[in-house]
Design a protein that fits this description.
Chain A: It comes from Actinocatenispora comari. Chain A: This is Daunorubicin resistance protein DrrA family ABC transporter ATP-binding protein. Chain A: Pfam families: ABC_tran (PF00005). Chain A: Keywords: Antibiotic resistance, ATP-binding, Nucleotide-binding, Transport. The complex is a heterodimer. Chain A is an alpha/beta fold. Helices cover 36% and strands 26% of the residues of chain A. Chain A contains 10 helices and 13 strands. In chain A, the strands form 3 sheets. In chain A, strands 6-7-8-3-9-10 form a 6-stranded mixed β-sheet, with helices on both faces. Chain A has a 4-stranded antiparallel β-sheet with strand order 2-1-4-5, covered by helices on one side. In chain A, helix 3 crosses helix 4 and helix 8 crosses helix 10. Chain A is globular, with a radius of gyration of 23 Å. By secondary structure, chain B is mainly alpha-helical. Chain B has one domain. In chain B, 75% of the residues lie in helices and 0% in strands. Chain B is built from 12 helices and no strands. In chain B, helix 3 runs antiparallel to helix 4. Chain B is elongated. Classes of the chains: A alpha/beta, B mainly alpha.
């Protein structure tokens, strides 16, 4: 129950359907939701975090009915969205201390704020107003704000967009740390290496529905086997032949080569999550 | 990473605060905003003082000769309070459009208490500004003959006017599209007193303008404050009715609008 997310038949229509009868169950760990722009990721996160009401459907977090008792649900969750939610006129430290006190940390709020400022490399900037912060610093402070407490579910909507590689790695570390301590992480991302690096389970959202759900290996396996790729001396791809990964299919692929291409280099490529994502969302587009 | 992995509290802790505690925290936040926005604070006080000095010393002689400062100060007090309070629209709108409200709404707190913070800070800010304006007015020759009870009545009415404008502009802040737009509405309030008895007696105005000047909400409030401080006609019931009516309408609008402002 603790840290679980349950979504059933969720519908939300703005001008057109954004969420179209979405079902989802997350028990714990790190869950990544992938989807192209406009797939409905942010709308879903907004509904799960009590910020937007759906047209219909059921949502529970840690067993709490989010739609019937949003106040109780807010005790269970914490969220960092794509837009930062900081007070520009206050300093970084004042932001965290205020939010900590609002959460009821009382006297412990200051210590917790200082600890997080250190953790996110913001100690130097702690006493500057947020209006002077760079985009990356704002993002880090916003993440720190979501980690003032240990929620049972932490929602991160594209948490590393706009971060430099070092900050990104740091955020990943923090996410892993929280997950190890028992917080369920619900992550949306457009960068597939992020999903692959962090998530135990990945789902693909497209046009308001989950169109694939599983581990990274399971998703890539759905796209098919390996490809035999012919490259010229400059590494350019000359030709690609699909195989199912068995020796027999490879032998046939090689036999199929024109004699003129035998001087080329040969590589055997496994499908990546990128291929899977492209194939999955593309297929949906064709059938729609 | 080991430090982060330790929970800030044991999982049995119920995170969050109630309305009273949250209001206190938000009042502190809004006061801090006011102090930090030094330019805004200086403008809110300096603008009415300049207005008062200009009317007293530049136009005063032409308008009604000696004693004009006693005539004009009550109107200036009202402009100070009203214009200052209208900045609450910017504060409220900034929270809505720049993201802070999204976090407050996702937290286990009554998010509407953020409005309490802005309102109380606006009261304090504008009472201080009003005191400074009255002080400067006395320094340049304003000589009220009010009894303590009349002073109390005048200050009570100014306070009520601040609440009125704050409530109205809290709604403007909820409804406006951007902090800049929200700020622009405040200027409207700066003009209302010009079409009243604030700077010149109404019977000197063109006939068609006289009813507008007489029956607009600011006029009875200015007349009453002037009557209490330096003598003359008062219209306390009209003043109270206007303030009470506007507060009631604004409160209904805020309560209606606040939950609907979250889809943005």
């Amino acid at each position: 129950m603790h840290g679980s997310i349950h979504v059933a038949e969720l519908r939300k229509t703005y001008r057109e359907p954004v969420l179209d009868g979405l079902d989802l169950d997350v028990g714990g760990g790190v869950f990544a939701l992938l989807g192209p722009n406009g797939a409905g990721k942010t709308t879903l996160v907004s509904i799960l975090t009590t910020l937007v009401l759906p047209d219909s459907g059921a949502v529970t977090i840690s067993g709490v009915d989010v739609l019937a008792d949003p106040a109780a649900a807010r005790r269970e969750l914490s969220v960092t969205g794509q837009e930062t939610t900081l007070d520009e006129l206050l300093t970084g430290r004042e932001n965290l201390v205020m939010l900590g006190r609002l959460l009821g940390l009382g006297g412990a709020a200051t210590a917790r704020a200082d600890h997080l400022l250190d953790q996110f490399g913001l100690r130097q900037a702690a006493r500057r107003t947020v209006s002077t912060y760079s985009g990356g610093m704002r993002r880090r402070l916003d993440l720190a704000a979501s980690m003032l407490r240990q929620p049972s579910v932490l929602f991160l909507d594209e948490p590393t967009t706009g971060l430099d590689p070092a900050s990104r790695a740091k955020v990943w570390d923090d996410v892993r740390g929280l997950a190890a301590a028992g917080t369920t992480i619900f992550l949306t991302t457009q960068t597939l290496d992020e999903a692959e690096a962090l998530a135990d389970r990945i789902a693909v959202l497209d046009r308001g529905r989950i169109i694939a759900d599983g581990t990274a290996a399971e998703l890539t396996a759905r796209v098919g086997g390996q490809r035999l790729v012919l490259l010229d001396a400059n590494g350019r791809e000359l030709r690609s032949i699909d195989t199912d990964g068995t020796a027999d299919s490879l032998r046939r692929a090689v036999a199929d080569l024109d004699t003129g291409q035998l001087g080329a280099h040969v590589e055997l490529r496994s499908p990546t999550l990128d291929d899977a994502f492209a194939a999955l969302t593309h297929r949906e587009e064709i059938s729609a | 990473m080991s430090t982060l992995t330790q929970p800030a509290h044991t999982p049995t802790v119920r995170y969050g605060t109630g309305p009273l505690r949250a209001s206190t925290i938000f009042v502190g936040r809004s006061i801090r905003h006011s102090l930090r926005d030094g330019e805004g604070l200086v403008m809110a006080v300096a603008l009415p003082i300049m207005l008062m000095l200009m009317f007293t010393f530049v136009f005063g002689g032409a308008i009604s000769g000696d004693g004009y400062i006693d005539y004009v100060v009550p109107g200036v007090i009202l402009i100070t309070a009203g214009f200052g309070a209208s900045s609450v629209a910017v504060s409220v709108n900034r929270d809505l459009t720049r993201g802070a409200m999204r976090r407050f709404r996702s937290m286990p707190i009554p998010a509407a208490t953020v409005l309490v913070g802005h309102t109380v800070a606006s009261m304090i800010r504008n009472l201080v500004a009003t005191a400074v304006v009255i002080g400067v007015a006395v320094a340049v020759g304003f000589r009220p003959d009010a009894t303590p009870v009349e002073w109390l009545g005048a200050l009570g009415l100014v306070t009520l006017w601040i609440i009125t404008v704050t409530a109205l502009f809290a709604f403007v802040g909820l409804a406006a599209g951007s902090p800049e737009a929200a700020g622009a509405y405040g200027f409207g309030l700066l003009f209302l007193p010009y079409v009243s008895s604030a700077f010149a007696p109404i019977d000197t105005m063109p006939g068609w303008l006289q009813p507008v000047a007489t029956y607009q909400p600011v006029n009875p409030i200015i007349e009453t404050i002037r009557g209490l401080l330096v003598g003359g006609e008062t219209a306390p019931w009209a003043a109270l009715a206007w303030c009470g009516g506007i507060i009631a309408v604004a409160a209904v609008l805020v309560v209606w609008r606040f939950p609907r402002s979250r889809d943005r």
